Amino acid sequence: MRTRTWAPYALIAPTLVLMAVFLVYPIASVAWFSLRQHTVTQPWKNGFIGFENFRRMLFEDQLFWQSLVFSAKWVVVEVGLQLVLGLVLALIVNETFVGRALARALVFSPWAVSGVLTTGIWILLYNPSTGVFQQLAQWGIGDPGTSVLGDPATVFPATVVTELWRGVPFFAILLLADLQTIPKDLYEAASVDGAGRWRRFVSVTLPHLRDAIVLSTLLRAVWEFNNVDLIYTLTGGGPANQTTTLPLYVARKAVDSHDFGYGSALTMAGFVILLFFSILYLRLSKFGSRA
Amino acid sequence: MTQTLIRPETPVVPPPSRPRRSKHRDPSRFFRLHLPLVLYLLFTLIPFYWMLVFAVRPAGETSLVPWPITFEHFDTVWNGVGFGLFFQNSLIIGVGTLVTVTVFALMGGYALARFKFRGQRVFLLALLCTQFIPGAMMLIPLFVIFKSAGLLNSLTGLIIADTAFQLPLALILMSGFVRNVPVELEEAAMVDGCTRLRAFFAVTLPQLRPALVAVGSFAFIGAWNNFLFALMFASKQDKFTLPVGLSYALGEFNTDFGALAAGGVVAAVPVVLVFAVVQRFLVQGLSAGAVKG
Fold it and tell me: Residues of A numbered 172-211 whose beta carbons fall under 8 angstroms of chain B's beta carbons: which are they?
């Protein structure tokens, strides 16, 4: 139905306007701000300074590099674990068993919980005086008074587990949806050919899920890279900036010091890195090449 | 001992449509299915339970099964701290975003699914690209826009921002749902003399009810949970949303875990309930092809 009417344009107009004002224009303005000195609290110093922000970022700012390294570590660990656990969970709740609908609703439920609320819940669990570790210590397991969020040795795993709790259901839901599109006769044919359970998983399930896995890991990697809510409220980037990601660093520049120029330069760096790795990932994974 | 453990029943309520009972009593099913499921359920539910216990347990007690329970913490946060107002703000933003996202996604999704128009591919590509734009990193320019538009400290402003950031994905999902409704139904109605608009409302829209429920609920959940925009653009306390209120509670109630937990329950109950109802529409919708666009 190729039409020459204005109807489709009228239908997408609200979306276009919103995207132009709140997505396209901000990107352009970030690019512009990144070339300026712009601090809300010191407006008399504002002005065009060329690439000075980038020079400062690349050559003088230790925290930029540190936050970048931590961002990479965070994304790889978080997305990797979420994918594996999410796939296992999807395979489990795709089986037939009594109470399956309830089990699905329960295991997927943390998906609906916000980052701040996740922090609230896990602070209750982790707190050294009345948390789970204290409870376990009372039962004779581990030491009492452990503050997992305050100890540099445990703050990273503790934060990872907290985000896993909320993040695994995303993969489980997406992969479950894709599992349900695998034709049953593929498995029957594989069984007839003598393929065991593991063999069927490797040669039927995984190839079918490939595009869904590529797409979900990519989306999730971007979201986890940008995840600020949880880390901001759970650790605040600490102790000693150990858990500061690049977006968290940007958010703190914006919220706390109102240094918009330098924050914009950091944002541009984040964009370029995300764009580069997204394209690289899609190329390497040959996404959609079988379709 | 394993004989008792491998029984396929799990102690949960059977769903209305009973799945086929497994005929083979395969002992590996316990290790493959029941054990990991129970472990994962514990991982999911213990944190929720922990919050619930703190919320209803009188201050100073440490019992894991508190009785009698108390509602004093709820009274503290709802009336004392102002969570009643935050709840109302979150509800307004959630419902407002739900309406705008659903309506605009339905319009755009219909355009993508039912028309071929110049610029369509570019539009689709732009929608996909927005998924790579980090909301957190847009705070600075958005703040400037909001300030110059006079949208700071306004619930309307937050509805607009939430809508802008959620619409692209909602629109892509919706176009998949619309594509799944056979176009022949609509064409038949038009042959019978309906206008395209009448045909849409009479034939297609009723078929899209699950899609509207799914897309709308996710817009609601997203807006309800949005923290950074609310923190950044609504700094006056009478415009706080639940996540912002909670984030302050994290600092202030450092010793009052009961109040923190009660605030958490207030923030969790609506979204978890909504999600429990709609998650199966989401799985169905995604697997019906929406994810492939």
Answer: 173-174, 176-181
